[in-house]
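Run GntR family transcriptional regulator through structure prediction, thanks.
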Amino acid sequence: MTTAKAKAAGHTPKNQKASFGDGEEGHSRAGVPVYYKLYVLLAQKIRDGELGPGEPLPSESEMTAEYGVSRVTVRKALNQLEKENLVIRRRGARSCVAPREEEPSPPLIRGPIDNLLTRGLAAQAQNLETGWKVPTLHAIEALRLQPNTECFRVVRLRLHDDAPFSYSRVYVAPKTAKPLADIPLGNDPVLVHLERAGFRASCADQSISATLAHDPAASALGVPLGSALIQLRRTVYDADGEPCIYQVSLYRPDKYEYFMRLSRESATMRPQWRHT
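Sure, done. The structure for GntR family transcriptional regulator is below.
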């Protein structure tokens, strides 16, 4: 049994100086606010237990020297940690790690969303945009369309217990999309509507990776710009092997994990695994 779960930030090896590359206010070279990168690093240390409850954080001057940032940046990072109840700040003293909350964390949503909806997951959909649009370059390539060809695009926000966890863009090739133009999409996945109209999917290519949050996804999901997100890309093919649907979904890693069970297919010393 295997669980793939995204981490919000990596670790800095001990005794290795972490630097955010500029020491200036504003944004780093990667476009992520410098204070937010420092916040993510400190938050991960707290969540992983590297900094325990009641343990003092380095002083502002120590963090300024260690990470190559200004005191303003350090204070903004500490403000964000305080908002999330991860640290306690005291005037004239070092900030310290807050006591761990005893309340259990909310359960993560696990697995492909369309499979979960089929099994009865109570996930509400907000259809933010629907209509014919010229797709992104990635969608054009995935659907093998000519440049400037319009396809049917659906932009959706999924919520569980009124909290957003998934932001998706679905692009449907023109030859497949006609049934979508005249029906209310409601809560069902786009593929469900298409198969009700006679379309049959035969297979799909799918990849999972990490990405950073940019607008409008960041605003819709309620996360700061530059936050880590799980990204799922999927291309669905019809019975003739032609690509018909291209989907890009972004998930909040604090509310979603991708779970897979793998079956062993080979009994040799080099086992092979199949997703079941």
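The chain has two domains: 8-97, 109-262.
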